[in-house]
Amino acid sequence: MRENHYYTEILRLVTDITNVPLADLADLRRRSARAYLSPDIPAGPRDLAEVRALADCWARIVDAETVQERVDLLNALLAKAAAYPRITNHDDCAGWHLHYRDDGVRLALVLRAVVAVAAAQHLTEQGMHRLGRCALAECRAAFVDFTRGGAQRYCTRVCANRDAVRRHRNRTGPPGRSAQPVGGAAQPTG
């Protein structure tokens, strides 16, 4: 099945909020808008606290040590997100799509429902291993693996490149030192 772009953005949003905690309600609004959540969804201080708690929950899902633990945590999140899906098209401007909320539901509740559904869909269709922490020791940011092969180890290419450079330098020595020639000692340079 084709990956749903909206769900992808929601999973990126919850992962971003997990990695970089929300500063305030305006920050929550900005990030939510980038993930295509309507600015008309009501939100207040209570939502900020609940979305921060959702980020903590997401971190536990990412860090689950077994598939069963991940499934149990995700099922608990799904149970809290009881909502009736419905088809809507926002006054003909967004095209027909699913909503997991009635009108007037607060942002934290909308986000919790959509994160739960998006994660369940992604993990059941792509594999339960598709969440992780960056392999770069000093980073360890959470990520959702959207790669074709499902073998992502780093949160970004920047971290992957940094680790590759480090491994290369560990093999060849510090910068400025030439590698030993094949088959013998270094030649004098004169």
TrEMBL record:
In this chain, the stretch annotated as Disordered covers 166-190
The protein's matches in InterPro entries, at most eight in alphabetical order, are given as: ABATE, ABATE_dom_sf, Znf_CGNR
Q: What is this protein called?
A: CGNR zinc finger domain-containing protein
Q: Which Pfam families match?
A: ABATE, zf-CGNR
Q: Where is the Zinc finger CGNR domain?
A: 130-171
Q: Which organism is it from?
A: Amycolatopsis samaneae
**Lineage of this protein's species?**
Bacteria, Bacillati, Actinomycetota, Actinomycetes, Pseudonocardiales
What's the superkingdom here? Bacteria
